Amino acid sequence: xxxxxxxxxxxxxxxxxxxxxxxxxxxxxxxxxxxxxxxxxxxxxxxxxxxxxxxxxxxxxxxxxxxxxxxxxxxxxxxxxxxxxxxxxxxxxxxxxxxxxxxxxxxxxxxxxxxxxxxxxxxxxxxxxxxxxxxxxxxxxxxxxxxxxxxxxxxxxxxxxxxxxxxxxxxxxxxxxxxxxxxxxxxxxxxxxxxxxxxxxxxxxxxxxxxxxxxxx
Length: 217
Description:
single chain, mainly alpha, 10 helices, 0% strand
């Protein structure tokens, strides 16, 4: 493959960057730890970078593509979140579902009778805290955390998995343990002590979504 064929097509990446910015601004992202504003500004930086590289590499004989002349998106407040009212309403509905969940009620009732080893092995404090974490987020109007609960199935599956293990400890050999995870931001002190089987399966929280990190060529 020639060097030319290996080079990045900055016209294409620029098109993708603008499409990503538009979607993120109107619909929001799914980053579990960072706001849409942070990610929007990362995309904006990428757009500026791609414009510069495109201008450097594009032959003046053919001129620059139309996308090059599109206005650079504005810098937004880092706290910006798309569709905030929808997130709040979804969080309220999720809280109602979680509070009514029979598996979680059972786990709460039985947790006092479990051994310390079982509590640690099955991430019981973290699972119970999922509900309280959402409750705190609603009270604090923390849209980033509330948005996590729009994907409620994984939390409900964790409640179910824990309830099954408590009812029949032997069944844990037949359960997909990935249904039970600890969330570091939900339970930082708790999860620091948990075994690897309780490790977080979501994205690392020290950087925004990988998809929005600045690409360097």
